[in-house]
Amino acid sequence: MNSDTNAFKDIRISCVELSKSAFLPIESFDPNSLTLLACLKKVERKLSTHKDDSLSPKFADYVFVPIASLLRQPALGESQTEYVLLIISHLLRICWSSNGKFPEQLGQELFPLITFLISSDKENQSLNSRSDEFTYAGCVALYQFFSSIRSQQYNNTFFSNSRPKSLPALGHSVTILLKILEQSSHNNELQLKVLASLEILFQDIISDGEMLSFILPGNVSVFSKILTKPGRKIHYKVCVRTLEVLVKLLVLVYDDFSLRVQVNRLTDIRALGEAELDPERDQPFSFNEPIVLPLKDSKTHRDTSWLRATSGQINNALKAFIPKLLIRNNKRIDEALTTFVSILLTRCEKSLRNCEKVLVSTLVSLQRDPMSKLPSHLEKLNEVLNENLHKLSDIIRFENAERLSALAFATDVIERNNKKGMVVNGIVKCLFYSVNECIEPPNLINHKEKLIEQSGPITAMVNFEELENKNAAIVLPRLSKNMSLSLREFTCHMGSLLLEKNVLNDVVIELISEQVDSPRTKKAVALWLSSNFLKAVGTLPKEEDDFLKFESIVDDSSRMVEEACLTVLEFCNELSQDISMDIEGKGIKKGDEFAVCTILSSVKTICSVMKDDFQSELIDYIYIVIDALASPSETIRYVGQSCALTIADTLYHGSVPNMILNNVDYLVESISSRLNSGMTERVSHILIVICKLAGYETIENFKDVIETIFKLLDYYHGYSDLCLQFFQLFEIIIVEMKKNYINDDEMILAISNQHISQSTFSPWGMTNFQQVLNILDREAQIKDDIMDHNDMESAKNGNEPSNFQEYFDSKLREPDSDDEEEEVEGGNPNDDVDQWTSPIPRDSYKILLQILGYGERLLTHPSKRLRVQILFVMRLIFPLLSTQHNLLIREVAGTWDSIVQCIVCADYSIVQPACICLEQMIKYSGDFVSKRFIELWQKLCQNSFILKELRIDPTVTNHEERSIGKRVKFPPITENALISLVHMVLQGVKITEYLISEATLEQIIYCCIQVVPVEKISVISLTIGDIVWKIRNVT
């Protein structure tokens, strides 16, 4: 009571001021008076501060007095009406909201008044021009009115047929709310308030399906329009609330129990004869359709005819807005839609029987069934599944992954609840034809594009030292990676169902056997499906209770599909051989790439399924896996990598090298058979892969294969690509040989320095004790390879220097140890058979000599790429040959002229590697090539194209015409060749600086400082430093 008193005191003055305007005579009253508006705002502001149900109805009676007077005026402005509605809503909220406070008679009088204030015309045209604030005030007034009615005892009878006077206002209020809902898409709060008002009206006040059936069509129509609008116009919260209100309305109207609906099922054919048929109504088709059982002595609006007519409208509405909501892909909307559909299938299963298909299809699309309604609708679910299967090609082609996942969901429900038969068998065949059709349409069968092969050595394509399982997914031709993954998941799921039904083994065998004589694409698709089906074997059980049974389940599953696994492996082998023969010399195509990747993935899957039992089968497939690692296709390489690591993890404790070493005999046999069959295109790349993965140890097992390669070089030396591949292989062999036998370059220098001294005035340049022993103990020294048989005999007869001084004098008299080249060539490499000092075994050393020999012969080949590769290989060989010095100098003498010819050629891309190679020869041969180097410089001055690029005459001795530093800016290829040439020349100068005239040395240094900074040259030796100083300072 005190609260009423305080509230009265607070609002009394505002009410008095409002009364002054409200009680004015009609002729003096201004409906748009600003004074009146200010008074209304003041009253509304006072009322808004009070809490719900905090004041008595007497307070409302006092405040309503000036409001009632205002309502007697002939007109009222829009803004003034807006605040009148707000004042009424506040009075309803704070004074008339609880039970017993709102007299029914007052409600009957107030309700039509509210609807009239909001919209005076039944068509609600005036609402089109009203502001949002006005419509919100009207909506709040209706919401508060319905909330107050809900709290009263008479709530269920307030709107009834016994009181027909209130029904027009009821209909009017519903149309007002629907109008506001439809035209206020920009105001989410207003729409939510409308939906809350309708929810109270339908559920808590009317709650009579018979009465609601009269207003149902209009509500469904507006709700459908709201739900079909795009997401940018309708907030997801509005969609969720609309679905909640709509489902409550539909349940109230179409509830099976309250509507007394039964399905008129035809169980006996004789019932047709007993039925009284009306041909005009076409009743024979009413069987198996819902009918309404009428109550005795009662006439209702909702009869069978009404049900057929309106349920059709409901079906159309559902078909209109459900797809739109699904497209929005909103989690909250999907949850609300799931609840919406589940409730209808529970409460209105019979009455909305014609909507069953769209409802079932919705749960399938959502992939949710929280109330487990689908098992009781298997017939319709099968129908939905079959329709989607007929469109499977389109689903795949247009990459609709969600529909594919929905198919898996539907299949799973059917298989787990259908005891009569299996639909998954039909899905397998449909899946096969659909996938095949999508990846190779009929109009493209004869137009397979060739795969662009990657150039460069295979070692640049894959980092073999850091081989990792990329778990590369197979991308189906003409499909994206995401769709390929979705399709794989779907196929694996089908495999799980087949395994549960114990038919996986039979299905795989049948699928494979049917494609024996099919085109390659169909074979690949069948293999891809079978492999993914088999991935189901060994998956973890879903039930936690089965966790401890996992090992036995996996073992049993593996044994169940053993025959299928072997069938798939055999099919892989046949398909692989077919592809290998077909692509030899032609290049791989996209379709073949998919087939090869499928083969590798299948081998990987079978290995994972068979585990240790796969060991006995590996010998037939190890070559396929290694061959994939050498493929020009990046996709094939990574799938092969994944396959290799899976096999290694399963059988060889994760070691790929051990896998190769344990199966090297089978690899040798496979490679040899292919070489003998003329299939030479990829052999070198395969050997490169083997060598890189397992090291040089494997090459020792391939000696026969390497000998065959040397023979092929004899026969096919004109084929540049083949020769290039072989020398790329030789490069890897040399690198791996060095890794296996030589620790580092210092080890090579240490071995070679035992035989040579880098100083011209030997033995003053000796660097170790072994060189001293070699001088003092000549009889124990290895016979010199540069002497022929006669020279050695004369040496034995006493022509050997008797002391150090004589030896020193002889060295001065013989400035070069290779005066007679034929002496070297006539040497016998077997003379040192008992003095093998190289850490490289004889057999391996022999391979180096053979590679060098074939390389020297092919240096005249017209292919530039081949010559560059050969020079690069020779550069690697000479340091290794230096570990057996007597054989090194023979090979140096034999190849010197060929490499010199490369240096003086006009192609600078050849000159650069040739200079690098000759630099290595000089470095490790020492003073053996002194004379040759001096002759080389003379030849360079006369014939070298690269030296002419300096645009100077090396023979000019006039210091006034000389300059130091670069005079010309060279292109990169020219500059690189010049730098390599200078480094080679400087290496030669180190061993000949005291054997050539000062003028010649000055010429050489002058040319070098045109390319290389002076500082780097002057530090080589004191003599060279003096020459540099002279060039810079003497004019």
From TrEMBL:
Domain TTI1 C-terminal TPR: 804-935
Residue ranges of coiled coil: none
Species annotation: Saccharomyces mikatae IFO 1815
Region of interest called Disordered, as start-end residue ranges on this chain: 812-838
Limits of the TTI1 N-terminal TPR domain: 8-369
InterPro entries assigned: ARM-type_fold (IPR016024), TELO2-interacting_protein_1 (IPR052587), TPR_TTI1_2nd_yeast (IPR059075), TPR_TTI1_C (IPR057567), TPR_TTI1_N (IPR057566), Tti1 (IPR016441), TTI1_rpt (IPR049362)
Acidic residues bias locations: 816-825
Name under which the protein is recorded: TEL2-interacting protein 1
Pfam families: TPR_TTI1_2nd_yeast, TPR_TTI1_C, TPR_TTI1_N, TTI1
GO CC annotation: cytoplasm
TEL2-interacting protein 1 second TPR domain segment(s): 373-620
Gene (UniProt): SMKI11G1760
